[in-house]
Amino acid sequence: MKISHQFDSGNIHVVNATSPDNIRLQINSDHQADFYQWFHFRLHSQAMVNHTLVIENLAKSAYPKGWEGYQAVCSYDREEWFRVDTSFNGDELVIDVTPEHDVMYFAYFIPYSYDRYLNLLATAQTAFDCQHELLGDTIDGRDVSMLVIGDRNSTQPNGQPKLNIWVTARQHPGETMASWCVEGIIGRLLDEDDGLARALLERVVFYVVPNMNPDGAVRGHLRTNAVGVNLNREWQTPSIEHSPEVYYVLQKMHQTGVDMYLDLHGDEALPYNFVAGSEGVPNYDARMAHLENTFKQALLIATPEFQDVFGYAKDAPGEANLTVASNAIAHAFNCMAYTLEMPFKDNANLPDAAYGWSVPRCAQLGEDILVAVQAVVGELSDK
C-alpha cells in the first residue's frame, strides 16, 4: 500500500498506513501560512477491500465547520469524480470506501490541473475576438495570464464605448470550483452560435483572469500564494514582492476601466451558491444597489442553483474591508462588484448524493451567470 501526493496540487502527510483499516493522515499547511483544508492524494492498494482513511487534527483547520456534512470526492480515472461515505467527529474526518480498482484518487474538491488551465488559455486564443495577454510573473515564475474576449476597437451599436467587464477566478487556489465555473463562462462567450454571447460582445469587452493564483494551485495550497499571502486581502496595497498577481491585474484594471466585476470563489461551510455585494463601501449608493439587485433577480430566474436567502452578513455602511477584491474594485471604479461563492459540499436546495456540487454544475452556473450579466449590461447601456 502506498499513499502519494507528489503531483500537481497534491497535499497530504502520512502519519500511519500499516493496513487498510489503519490509515491516518494529516493535511499540510500552506507554505509560510497556517491555512490548511485542501487535500489531494493517491491511494495505491488492493481493490475490493474496505479501507478506512482518517484525516486528523481538523479542529484547527482553516474552516472546521466546512467538514460538517461534507463528503470527500474520489476518482479512478481523474475524469469522473464522485462522493464517498465520509463522517466528521469534530477533529477527525473518516473516509470509508472499498476501492473497485487498485489506484484511487481523493481530493477536497474536484482538482483543476495546471495543464488544463494552460490548455484553456491556448484553445481560447484561437477563437474569434479572443486574445491571450500576459500581465506579469508570479513569485514562482509562472505567467499571470488574462483572456480578452471582444473587439476593443469597436463601439456599442448606440455609438457609446464598449463596457469593460472583469472576471477573476481562484484567488484562493483550493477553490477549484471557480476554475470550472470560469470555464463555463469562457466557453459560452466563445460560442459563435450562442445568441446571448453575440449580443453581449456587441456591447462588452470581457477581461477574464481564469487563475489568479497558479503558484498556490500547483503547490496544493488552500488560500495563499507561494509566500503565504492571501491574495483576497491585498487589493488596497498589492506589491510585486508579496502579491504580484494582484498588483499586475489591478494595474491593468486601471488601464482599461471597470464597469462590472465578478470574483469567483468557493465557500467551505455554506452548501449554497450566493453572492456577496459591496454595500459597505463608502461610495455605495442607490445606483449600485439597483445594479446588484438586477443581477441577483436575473440569476434567480435563470437557474434554481442560485439563491439569495443564505450568505454572508452584510457590511454596515462605510465599514467594508477595502483589501477584499470586490469591495476594492467597487470603491475604486464606482461599479457593481460581486463575490460569487459556490459550495464545496453540495447545493442543499438541489442535492445530488452521488456527485454533490460537481464540474458540470459549476460550468452550467458559469453559462447562466451571463444571463445576469446581460441584464446589468442592459441597465448600463441605457444610461
CATH architecture of the largest domain: 3-Layer(aba) Sandwich
- Average pLDDT figure: 98
Low-pLDDT sequence parts:
none
- Across the major sheet, the strand order is 11-12-14-13-15-17-16
How many β-strand runs?
Answer: 17
Q: Nearest-angstrom radius of gyration?
A: 21 Å
Order of helices and strands: EEEEEEEEEEHEEEHHEHHEEHHEH
The percent range for strand residues is 15-25%
Explain the overall architecture.
A hairpin with a 5-residue loop joins strand 11 (130-137) and strand 12 (143-149). The chain is built from eight helices and 17 strands. It has helices spanning 114-124, 177-189, 195-201, 214-219, 244-256, 286-302, 325-333, 359-381, and strands spanning 2-4, 13-19, 22-26, 40-44, 51-55, 73-75, 82-83, 86-88, 93-97, 103-107, 130-137, 143-149, 163-169, 204-209, 260-267, 274-276, 336-343. 26% of the residues lie in helices and 23% in strands. 49% of the residues are buried. The chain folds into two domains: 2-107, Immunoglobulin-like, CATH 2.60.40.3120; 114-381, Zn peptidases (Aminopeptidase).
